[in-house]
């Protein structure tokens, strides 16, 4: 026998758990007015023309207009195939993890078509207040879990067919309550979107500030000796800045290790795209074989020579003390009174810094494009006084903190909205209807 549970007053058991007694469960087939596949435009895509929304553009709840494809303006299509405000799109094909995503079209573009992997859903107005409400319903936890069970195929290619989509169970309150729930969740969406727009603005401003500070276009008054400029290979710089080679501002450090066979060691790795150091699983000295390894020293600039061109750079900290690295991860310690480590890291995080790393990494793509350490040592970067370097680092660091706080705020709002959505769409939290 199943475990007995107390059913609160005003609630009833259902296929999706406890729901209010005045709510009803429907199969999607019972509330769908129409489901229309997009056009088959795959053989006529172009680099310009009418934008085409594809399965990769469907995120949970919203449509992304990044990485668009287009069909030529003269291509055959029906006027009814254009998306309109509030259309709900269902992703019928994708990977097993991504198939079944649902998103609302908010007129992100003046005109757009959608392809044959997407279904445009319309609902019976007698049961469903709006597509906006159904966008939340079909992105709820209980809907997603059902849709994943409906998916057939492999991990890389999966599909959800209309016959299975029609079996989706959804819970619906009254039309006025649906409207109120939609307004509440839309307010949270707006707060998240506003913060995302603010974050985008911060990041854009941060990039401009970084470029100006690291080229001397913006200066601190107490560090300006004169307004004279000099022309260099990297552009116009303040006259009291110097263009120095890497070998002039850092020392290569290398403390060789002879591993003990039974001793455990932990190696580091570096993520590409400036995403920092990660720590690998411990291994025995014996398993290292003949690999040449070195002790990590803190407060050093470190680079993965295989993926330097892909911005695999970082700085070591006390957290890496006692760990090791192979010869692929050379360490460079800033020379005292000449260079601030964070200034060096900030410089190489820029587009200009990445370009220099690419220049010092000859060869083809991937593992054939290895950083030449002799070429790296010859690279030259602009070097202001140590005090001005620290001021630059301080300003950029504060800007980074503001961006990180915004990102955390967006994450918090998103998690809060997800929890609220789950409770509103199951009736755990009820809303007062006027």
Automatic annotation (TrEMBL):
Stored Pfam families: Methylase_S (PF01420)
Chain ranges of the Type I restriction modification DNA specificity domain: 20-194, 304-414
Coiled coil: 396-423
Family annotation (CDD domains): RMtype1_S_Eco15ORF14057P-TRD1-CR1_like
Keywords attached to this entry: Coiled coil, DNA-binding, Endonuclease, Hydrolase, Nuclease, Restriction system
Gene3D superfamilies on file: Bipartite methylase S protein (1.10.287.1120), DNA methylase specificity domains (3.90.220.20)
Family matches, as InterPro entries: Restrct_endonuc_typeI_TRD, Restrct_endonuc_typeI_TRD_sf, Type-I_RS_S_subunit
EC number(s) stated in the UniProt entry for this protein: 3.1.21.-
GO molecular function annotation: endonuclease activity; hydrolase activity
PANTHER family, alphabetized: TYPE I RESTRICTION ENZYME MJAVIII SPECIFICITY SUBUNIT, TYPE-1 RESTRICTION ENZYME ECOKI SPECIFICITY PROTEIN
Family, as annotated: Belongs to the type-I restriction system S methylase family.
Protein name, per record: Restriction endonuclease subunit S
């Amino acid at each position: 026998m199943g475990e007995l549970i107390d059913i609160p007053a005003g609630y009833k058991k259902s296929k999706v758990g406890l729901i209010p007694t005045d709510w009803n469960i429907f199969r999607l087939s019972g509330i769908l007015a129409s489901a229309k596949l997009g056009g088959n435009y795959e053989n006529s895509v172009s680099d310009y023309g009418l934008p085409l929304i594809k399965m990769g553009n469907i995120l949970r709840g919203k449509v992304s207009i990044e990485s668009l494809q287009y069909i030529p303006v003269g291509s055959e299509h029906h006027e009814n195939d254009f998306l309109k405000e509030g259309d709900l799109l269902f992703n019928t094909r994708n990977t097993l993890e991504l198939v079944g995503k649902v998103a609302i079209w908010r007129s992100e573009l003046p005109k757009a078509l959608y392809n044959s992997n997407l279904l445009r859903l319309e609902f019976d107005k007698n049961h469903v207040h709006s597509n906006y409400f159904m966008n939340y319903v079909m992105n709820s936890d209980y809907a997603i879990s059902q849709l994943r069970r409906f998916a057939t195929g492999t991990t890389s290619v999966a599909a959800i067919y209309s016959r299975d989509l029609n079996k989706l169970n959804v819970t619906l309150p009254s039309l006025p309550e649906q409207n109120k729930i939609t307004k509440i969740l839309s307010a949270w969406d707006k707060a998240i979107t506003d913060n995302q727009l603010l974050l985008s603005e911060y990041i854009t401003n941060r990039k401009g500030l970084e470029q100006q500070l690291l080229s001397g276009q913006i200066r601190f008054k107490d560090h300006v000796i004169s307004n004279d400029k000099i022309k260099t290979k990297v552009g116009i710089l303040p006259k009291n800045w110097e263009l120095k080679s890497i070998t002039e501002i850092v020392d290569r450090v290398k403390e060789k290790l002879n591993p003990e066979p039974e001793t455990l060691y932990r190696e580091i790795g570096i993520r590409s795209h400036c995403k920092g150091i990660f720590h690998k699983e411990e291994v025995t000295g014996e398993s290292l074989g003949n690999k040449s390894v070195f002790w990590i020293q803190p407060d050093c600039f470190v680079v993965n020579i295989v993926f330097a061109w892909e911005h695999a750079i970082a700085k070591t900290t006390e957290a890496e003390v006692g760990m090791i690295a192979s010869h692929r991860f050379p360490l460079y310690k800033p020379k005292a009174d000449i260079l601030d480590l964070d200034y060096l890291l900030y410089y190489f995080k820029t587009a200009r810094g990445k370009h220099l790393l690419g220049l010092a990494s000859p060869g083809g793509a991937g593992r054939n494009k290895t950083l030449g350490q002799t070429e790296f040592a010859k690279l030259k970067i602009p070097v202001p006084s140590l005090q001005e370097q620290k001021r630059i680092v301080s300003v950029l660091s504060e800007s980074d903190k503001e961006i990180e706080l915004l990102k955390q705020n967006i994450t918090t709002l998103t998690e809060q909205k997800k929890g609220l959505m789950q409770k509103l769409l199951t009736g755990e939290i009820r809303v007062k209807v006027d």
